Amino acid sequence: MASLGARTNVTSSPNHVEIPIHANANNVVEPQPIQGVEESNIDYSQRAQWLRAAVLGANDGLISVASLMMGVGAVKEDITTMLIAGFAGLFAGACSMAIGEFVSVYTQYDIEMARIKRERKGNNNNNINEVNEEAQREKLPNPFQAALASALAFSVGALVPLLAALFIRNHKIRLAIVAVAVSLALLAFGIVGAVLGNTPVRRSCLRVVIGGWMAMAITFGLTKLIGSAGI
Q1: Which residues of 7-32 are buried (b: 16+ CB within 10 A; e: fewer)?
Q2: Of 66, 58, 64, residue with least CA distance to 181
Q3: Which of 52, 113, 158, 173 is disulfide-compatible with 90, CB 3.0–4.6 A?
Q4: What's the CA gap between 108 and 102, in Å, rounded?
């Protein structure tokens, strides 16, 4: 008979996982948590914030600038006009993403700091509270880093349609090349986001690609309609 506190292992065939079990003072066995599952959950949780900002920024830059260029291309065949509109969209969008992310993350930072200070006032041990407050402060997201990451991600996505149209002089071929390049980039972003986020790849790709096509088609069609009406 095993003594109290002794470790008991449940073993089976090589296809099964060995689960360590410990007996407590009341001789009741307690299964231990599986470390791999916890680490996996923590890993994906830590990825969530930067992944969201990066994927959102890149997709926003890609779709926004591509749709803007397609809209201008619907009424203007001049490559210079199309490129200027694209670069203007890149600069404006990058600034907008950076400011929006900065305000959002800073608001979250202020809320968390207010909560930490309230918890500190409710406890008596100031030394321990100061250490805990500093540790929690370091875990909070940095608004400046988040703003820079969003602006860079937007710019990377926006460069795809600009580079695709840069050296194509023929108007119709230029529009087709932009559409193909944007579709491939959307597919790549969908795959990367699905793999890093541990989500279904096919569903993620379809959602991103179809959304991008709709944005470009709607912008092209409405701009063409307005241009035809002579407004």
Answers
A1: eeeeeeeeeeeeeeeebeeeeeeeee
A2: 66
A3: 158
A4: 10
Using one digit for the tens of pLDDT, what is the confidence trace for 102-123? 998 889 888 888 887 777 776 6
Q: Give SS3 for 6.
A: coil
Which tokens hold the place of 122? 């409710």
Calculate ∠ Cα 203-209-211, nearest 5°. Answer: 100
In sequence order, the β-bridge partners of residue 29 are 23
Where are the domains positioned within the chain?
1-30, 47-229
Q: What is the pLDDT of residues 178-190, one digit of tens each?
A: 999 999 999 998 8
Among 57, 71, 59, 56, CA closest to 216: 71
> What are the Cα distances from residue 62, in Å, to 42, 47, 50, 69?
30, 22, 18, 11
pTM for this predicted structure = 0.71
Beta bridge pairs of residue 21: 8, 31
Q: Map residue 30 onto helix, strand or coil.
A: strand
Task: Compute CA 130 distance to the chain's CA centroid, rounded to the nearest angstrom.
Answer: 33
Measured CA to CA in angstroms, residue 192 lies from 55, 197, 210 at distances of 9, 8, 17
Which burial class, exposed, middle or buried, applies to 125 when counting CB atoms under 10 A from its CB (0-12, 13-18, 19+)? exposed
